[in-house]
Design brief:
Layout: E1 16-20, H1 26-33, E2 38-43, H2 46-62, E3 69-74, E4 87-93, H3 102-111, E5 113-124, H4 126-135, H5 137-141, H6 152-160, E6 165-172, H7 177-186, H8 194-209, H9 212-225, E7 228-234
Parallel strand pairs: 1-2, 1-4, 2-3, 4-5
Antiparallel strand pairs: 5-7, 6-7
Helix pairs in contact: 1-2, 4-7, 7-8
Length: 236
């Protein structure tokens, strides 16, 4: 499930893309598919970083890469282990809502980005997120979970406040919003909820098969219930 539009990153062969808070590697792997790119993933959770490495190794075994290279690190996004002005693009997808010191994290994203480089940031959209918080106290009280809800204004203020120039954005994953509302309503740990099971099965099918009908429906619904907001910035 790819949230960021890689065409907007505008990274040429030979460039470097950093995926901060890479989780199990969805954007790191997509970056590695781009022609001639060095894809770098970083996550605080060593198990997730290890899973990303496994995914990239499997891509190498299958010849699925774009001819570049990759590296994966376990580390803290408020203390990135990279030199200044190092990456052509930085992705930070569904991460900042988890970080207590989001201002320091934002400053680090910019520090390692080259001048004229592109920063892509996605966070949960305000209204779908408020519904989740309203339906489930557990949703925002889980250790390591979401600790804040961003509005468009607050997110732009955060990123522009560390020197970036906003270039545009879009919504994503409208079909995922009802799934999370169902989970919150029926209990995040309730594995037996039939409606949640069926909807999850539908989402897996959609991600794997990508039928035109659900792609069109997702695009149609994104302006209304898109689960994520994706923003693009350039460094002056």
């Amino acid at each position: 499930m790819i949230t960021v539009d890689f065409k907007r990153l505008n990274v040429k062969p030979g460039g470097r893309i950093l995926d901060v808070g890479c989780g199990q590697g969805r954007h790191t792997c997509e970056a590695y598919c781009q022609p001639g790119i060095t894809a770098v993933g970083l996550d605080l959770n060593p198990k997730d970083a290890a899973q990303t490495r496994s995914m990239l190794c499997a891509m190498d075994d299958s010849g699925m890469g774009g001819g570049g290279t990759w590296q994966v690190f376990s580390g803290d996004c408020t203390r990135l282990p990279f030199e200044d002005d190092f990456f052509d693009a930085v992705i930070c997808s569904e991460v900042l809502e988890h970080i207590p010191n989001n201002k320091k994290a934002a400053a680090e994203l910019v520090r390692v980005l080259k001048p004229a480089g592109v920063l892509a940031v996605s966070v949960p959209r305000y209204t779908p997120e408020v519904i989740c918080w309203t339906l489930s106290e557990q949703y925002y009280n889980t250790p390591g979970g979401h600790i804040r809800i961003y509005t468009r204004k607050s997110l732009l203020k955060l990123i522009e406040g560390v020197g970036m120039k906003y270039r545009g954005g879009h919504f994503a994953h409208s079909l995922h919003a009802p799934y999370w509302w169902l989970k919150c309503a029926m209990g995040l740990d309730n594995e037996d909820a039939r409606a949640v099971q069926l909807y999850h099965r539908f989402l897996v099918w959609d991600i794997m098969k990508k039928p035109w009908l659900t792609r069109a429906l997702d695009k149609l619904l994104n302006p209304f219930i898109g689960k994520s907001c994706v923003y693009y910035f350039t460094r002056p």
